[in-house]
Amino acid sequence: MNKFIFQTKINFKRIVFRNKSFFFFDMLLPIVFYVLYTKILVTGIPASYLKVWNEDYLVSMMIYACMLGGIITTANTLLEDQMSNFKLFVTLSPLSNLQYYTSMAIVLVTLNLVSSIAITVVAIIVNHVTLSIGLLIALILVNLLGTTLLILIGVLISFVKKASTVNLLTNLIVFPLAIISGLWWPIKLMPTWLQSIGKLMPTYQLSVIDKNVLHQTPQHIGSFINLFIWFVIILAILLLASKIQKRKGIVTQ
């Protein structure tokens, strides 16, 4: 246990304190989008709807921040570990692969937690969004549980083993997914066929769950089923890809 805690501390230092880009991409960018879309680009939105818009867009940017941390940061961090032979060092140490990935997951979930809190603080200061402590904790916890799926996607992308391809895939997944899921603007503004696709995405269903928590409205089981199906699919692909790479001798045991 002490070795696991020590490894987790090392991961915090090298991923957070030595990676200044985290503060820009995982925290600052969603905050900028939130301020932009709630204080500047609000022309045509009725004043009576602004309160709901400010709250709903808070949820959207919390999920978007977790996409940046869960997919982009995860994929690039794991790829860097492989290219720098840090993963080999871990393999040769007393820590198992399971402990390595668990330690990484703790760090990455913590980063998502910090991002969620930072955006919430901005929403409270800038738009006077009111949330009780209990409601805030429930919202953040539900959001973090949902975004564990995003971390799995990041792990899967890292299996590509090429920095250029990893960067391409993360961009091709994160930004289009944010758009069609209705995180950047309401999904109702999109064509009907695109709405149908967007509503199948896990990030859209997670936003539905988060908004129901925020507004204290009844949840729909369909959203949870959607996330569970996506979780099973991504996990199955991840396990299959891992077995294929081990069979080819790409992954060091």
TrEMBL record:
Coiled-coil parts of chain:
none
Sorted UniProt keywords: Membrane, Transmembrane, Transmembrane helix
Key word Glycoprotein present: no
Pfam (any one): ABC2_membrane_3
Span-the-membrane segments of this chain are: 21-37, 57-79, 100-126, 132-156, 168-187, 221-241
Cited PANTHER family? DOXORUBICIN RESISTANCE ABC TRANSPORTER PERMEASE PROTEIN DRRC-RELATED (PTHR43027:SF1)
What is this protein's name?
ABC transporter permease
- Entry's Gene Ontology cellular component terms: ATP-binding cassette (ABC) transporter complex
Please state where this protein is localized. Membrane
Q: How does it sit in the membrane?
A: Multi-pass membrane protein
Q: Which residues form the ABC transmembrane type-2 domain?
A: 21-248
Which Gene Ontology terms cover its molecular function? ABC-type transporter activity
Major location, coarse class?
membrane
